[in-house]
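Schema walk-through. Below, the input block comes first and the output block second. Nothing else is stored per chain. Lengths vary across the set, and this one has 244 residues.
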Amino acid sequence: MGTIAYFDGSGLSAPSSIAVLCCICASDDFWREFNRRWEQTLQELGIPCWHTTDFLRRSPGTVPAQLLNVIGTIAVGDCQICSIAVHKEAHAALRGTCPTMQPMEDLCVGFCFKKLGIAKTDIGQTGCLQLLFDRGEPFLRHLKAPWQREHRKAQRQGGRPAQVRDIRFVTAQDHPGLQAADLIAWGVRMHYETQQQDLRASRIIMMTLLTGKHYHGFLDAEALHRFYVQKEQVSFALHYDMTR
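--- output ---
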């Protein structure tokens, strides 16, 4: 057995007000079945490889319901989603006055790493977790060096870094889990950027909420101030206003 976590970001380098990092973490057994369903669905849709912004640029109407149904299988699998969204201007403004504040990339990677799940059969094992990032994803460099330092310590003392076998870039075309993380990261970003006005993003968000396995944090100006200045705990949950 083993556990694979796919990471993908949205909005970090783009002209966007929100930056998001999303991770989907699941057992090998889950990924085998998920990959089969995802690839079969893309084949039926005539799509060689899913990339959200590219698809919606060509077909701006909607995200195919068939793909969202595949995302829905997370509800019954050994799998979970974690994501964090940060308001970029609010982070930059507070960091100018708060020297202890982490760079935005470090904050996002740290949150997702702490919320990683592990396959039930891998609990207590070492070298069982692979962390896979989209090729060129800028978030990776903010995890690999700290992990290498902590990994050496964990080999002596135990802990999460000792469970990690590998951190590396992969190609989305070969990994449906990475394509799914891209879809969810885009949905979360647009959920906040449009203040829930983008129906395509709303459908993605609702499907992840229905799985009951999406752990999420949104750090806007208020949440950042509470967390870094007032040293309060921030409630991490994905909220959707059903009255809109």
